[in-house]
Amino acid sequence: MREILPERVQTGRVRTGPMASDANDGANGKFYVLGPNGAVLTIVANDASDPEALGWEHVSVSTERRCPNWPEMSFVKTLFWSDDEGVTQFHPPISEYVNNHPFCLHLWRNVNEPLRLPPSYFVGMKDHGEMSNGERFKAFMEMRKAAP
User: Fold this and answer.
1) C-alpha 136: how far from its chain's center?
2) Cβ neighbours around 109 below 10 Å, total
3) How far apart are CA 114 and CA 10, in angstroms?
4) Burial of 42 by CB count in 10 Å (0-12 exposed, 13-18 middle, 19+ buried)?
5) Are 41 and 68 in contact (CB under 8 A)?
6) 95 and 141 share a domain?
7) Other beta carbons less than 10 A from residue 73's beta carbon
8) pTM of the predicted model, to two decimals?
9) From CA 98, how far away is CA 50, in angstroms rounded?
10) 85, 95 contact by CB (below 8 A)
11) Residues of the domain holding 139
């Protein structure tokens, strides 16, 4: 997680009340930031410096009337983490669900364990760029033929 947050995050820092923080608190605190689509994002962040965090960096992102969308979550990821740090959103078993806010999503990073990802070709072919469904299927079939 970034030690120094971008200026647009710093200016949105909540400075009074129960979640008040200042620049000395690093990435910890509550922030109001204008998102890439014009919605105000409410962000609560924890940089895992507190032993009670058990090594988990965490950012929650919410809006007033809907869940944050992909561009907003990606935007927040770039504000709080560098390009070479991977973070995740979890979909736990339903028995583990917690929902204290109807329009809130979370980003997580464990500082003690590297983020394990599936091979990128499970998602698609990096060097092909954006493709239609037909183009994807054709490229996939060609890749399968070329495989040993």
Assistant:
1) 27
2) 22
3) 28
4) buried
5) yes
6) no
7) 19
8) 0.86
9) 22
10) no
11) 119-148
Domain count, the chain: 2
> Tokens 């999503």 map to which residue?
105
Which residues does 55 contact at the CB level (< 8 Å), separation at least 6? 48, 110, 111, 112, 113
Phi, psi of 142 (to 5 degrees): -65, -40
Same-domain status, 33 and 93: yes
In a domain, 123, yes or no: yes
Q: What is the pLDDT of residue 146?
A: 78
Q: CA-based angle 99:100:105, to the nearest 5?
A: 65
Quick one: 56 and 112 in the same domain?
Answer: yes
Q: Are residues 95 and 126 in the same domain?
A: no
Both structure tokens of 6: 């971008």
What digits encode the pLDDT tens for the residues 99-116? 999 999 999 999 999 999
Same domain, 27 and 72: yes
Q: Return the pLDDT at 111.
A: 97
**Which regions in the chain score pLDDT beneath 70?**
148
Q: 14 and 84 share a domain?
A: yes
